[in-house]
Design brief:
By secondary structure, the chain is of the alpha+beta class. The protein is built from seven helices and 13 strands. The chain has helices at 2-51, 184-200, 209-223, 235-245, 250-263, 312-321, 350-353; strands at 78-79, 91-93, 98-101, 113-115, 123-127, 137-146, 152-162, 225-226, 247-248, 268-272, 282-287, 292-295, 308-310. α2 crosses α4, α2 packs across α5 and α4 (235-245) packs across α5 (250-263). The longest helix has 50 residues, at 2-51.
């Protein structure tokens, strides 16, 4: 009796499973039929809207044509695609005039961006065929941005090539561009960054050399974060590292200051710590019109570290009290001014210098 009941229950269970399988198969068939019907309907609508013959028997042109329209020869500023397609030209930003020295190189697309409202990757072409980097003069560079619909925007910039400047610093100075292993392209990029940051900090040509130097000292001292190590084989690369990452050790602080001082037209001489048994250190001498003074933007802990236009007397006293932090060969550099103009314990607030 018990066995018969079990057999009946198993039979009922098998029938239920079979019924579920049949329902699943039926549902899949219905779903497939619905999807097929929808696809047929969509295909018909696409054909009817975009490709069906007109009343005159002509076939319609696809609305989303990828063929770029012809542009008018000699057109400047912007050109647009035919009506009914994308007509908004791309936008070019970052095109600026450049000044370089004979023999330098330029990365023309450095800092230039192109955006478009429909094309995620508009093309940027640069025509620098008029530029002669080995001959002083002013040359025009043309930037042309083109999107996928053929819309164009053009901008021009002037590249001024200047004669090599006469070296006015002592021949014994280390770290000049001539004996630095950096490439010409790296030097050009460093100068571009230095000019950009000078503009950012508000340095203008009509400022006094002292005010320019003050802004540079505070920018380097405040904007860079101190890290432990750097590649000291090239001051040009050290400056680029400081500008690109806003980090570095004393060599990067020195290199960034040197690059900014040179671009601002402030006479500068490199100074290297003479006793490196404890640590290495680098800083500058600057002349803002009243003689050579020490200029060291590397931050230190504690008071009395405002190394902006300080004398040997001030620097030597600090160095002696801080494990020979700034010991140097006094006879290896041009004679320094002796009049004290800076209180090393009275650094002004940053926002008073770079508002």
């Amino acid at each position: 009796m018990e066995e018969t009941r079990n057999n009946v229950q198993r039979k009922i269970a098998e029938n239920k499973r079979a019924a579920r399988r049949r329902r699943a198969i039926r549902n899949r068939i219905i779903f497939g039929a619905v999807v097929f019907a929808v696809l047929v309907l969509i295909s018909f609508l696409i054909y009817k809207i975009f490709f069906a013959p007109t009343d005159e028997g002509e076939t319609k042109e696809p609305i989303f044509s990828t063929e770029a329209p012809e542009t008018t020869k000699g057109a400047e500023a912007t050109t647009s695609a035919p009506s009914g397609t994308d007509t908004k030209p791309p936008v070019i930003e970052g095109v600026t005039d450049r000044e370089i020295t004979v023999g330098d190189t330029i990365s023309y697309k450095q800092g230039v961006t192109v955006t478009d409202d429909t094309d995620p990757s508009p093309r940027l072409d640069v025509d620098a065929s008029q530029v002669d980097l080995n001959t002083p003069g002013s040359y025009t560079v043309t930037y042309t941005a083109t999107d996928a619909s053929g819309n164009q925007t053009k901008k021009t910039a002037t590249v001024t090539v200047k004669e090599q400047e006469t070296q006015t610093q002592p021949a014994s100075q280390s770290g000049t561009e001539d004996d630095d292993p950096a490439t010409a392209e790296e030097r050009s990029y460093m100068k571009y960054l230095a000019k950009s940051y000078l503009r950012q900090m508000g340095v203008t040509d009509d400022m006094s050399l002292e005010k320019k130097a003050l802004k540079i000292w505070h920018w380097v001292n405040w904007e860079l974060d101190y890290t432990a190590t750097s590649d000291k084989s090239s001051w040009v690369r050290g400056a680029i590292q400081a500008f690109d990452t806003h980090k570095g050790d004393c060599f990067n602080y020195f290199a960034a200051a040197k690059a900014l001082l040179q671009e601002a037209g402030i006479p500068e001489v490199d100074v290297v710590k003479s006793d490196t048994s404890h640590s290495m250190h680098f800083w500058c001498l600057v002349d803002v019109g009243n003689g050579w003074y020490h200029f060291d933007p590397t931050p230190r802990e504690g008071d009395g570290d405002y190394f902006f236009l300080v004398t040997d007397e001030q620097l030597d006293a600090y160095s002696e009290a801080h494990e020979n932090s700034h010991i140097f060969d006094h006879n290896a550099y041009p004679a320094r001014a002796t009049e004290i103009v800076t209180d090393m314990n009275d650094q002004p607030p940053h926002n008073e210098v770079n508002p």
